[in-house]
Amino acid sequence: MTTVYVLVVVVLVVLPALAAWSSRRGRRRQDTAHAAVLEEFAAGLGGTVHRKRQAGAWSAHLKPPFDRQLAGFRRFLTTHRPRNEYAVEFARGPWRVRISEASLERRSTGSSGRNTIHERRVEIATADIAPLVLQVKQHTDVDGRPIDPDAGATAPPVPATVAARGGAWVETPVSTPANQHLAAFTGDHAAAARMVNAQATAWLLDRLHPMAPRIFTFESGLLYVTLPGRIDPAKDVETVNTLLGLLDCIPEASPTPPDGQSHLITEAVPTTRPEEKGSSMSTLGVVGIILGMLALVVGLFGYGGVNLVNGVASAFGLGDDVTVTVTDETEWNKRNPHLFGEYTIDGETHSMALSSGEVGEVLDGTMPVLPVSWLGIDDEPLTGWDPFWLLVISAVCFGLLAVPIWLVASSSSERPAATQGSTASRNPPGTRS
């Protein structure tokens, strides 16, 4: 049975380890490609790329990453705290812009037992104006039923700065027709009226689409939005332009006097190739998986198939009949003594171990229809319950074939890259922590 044990080890140890190694290698290659795209993106805008401890969002101390995913009992589904990965920082006129991404690892039922989700945040440093949240109204509820556009919107969480002062947080009027699509919340109605002006709301309404940001937050000298997924230059340039245009509509938000020039991004940006978005696997890993699968098919399927044929054939008496005489009993274990028997084929006498019988008893047996000597196991007569156990072994072998298939089919998580960012990296130029 040594060969069977080797096959079991291959299924339960070698292949999972090979799949995990190949998946990690593929994620490293994907991360390297992602970093190259970000470097090209930043270079085209005269900016820089930050990693690990320097990649935190400026507003992380106001709104921590993945705050919803870590609320309540859902925090127990995570394996560690959020990690910062990359941040792209650049300037557009008077505005300092930062696009950062973070990752969160959660438990799952996949092959690796975990999966990683990403979140990115687009931020622009502004003057320290009144806290304000602009949000796009939902027109249907979770069941798809229409919502009255004149009904009050659900208030977003109170910003950290407002909560620290114990100030009021209420909905403020938005002029028609923008009030059919936008809702605003603030603690300073006069400042909000100047910020949510007709020009600003018209700019936002012209850029609403399903993938656009839904919540725009002004707080502590920042305007920021949060979106799912990793940094995508093509999509995030559109978001940055939306925020820049919104700030240009609010003169008091500018950290310096307006220069009369457009700050929107018009430079060409790199695009993420489709193959870089999905999980990749190295060539060596693919070859290893294929060779491992071939070994399993030949080994498990072959051994299971031989046992299945021999078990069925012996049960129906299709093999050559052989008589086995029980000749000896070893008292190695009183409850399960070792029995030995002898049988004769072509004038030669052979010995074999037996699972039942008494010394001197003659047992009826049949020779296997298919030989198993290719596995290093002697071809011996099948007696008693042996055919039944062959059927059980064949079922186990066929069941084990499902394990590598499941490993290959299961999706693997992306590798989280960096550690939590420092407080210094979260603060934009000219703002207070």
UniProtKB/TrEMBL annotation:
Keywords: Membrane, Transmembrane, Transmembrane helix. The chain crosses the membrane at residues 6-23, 283-303, 388-409. This is Uncharacterized protein.
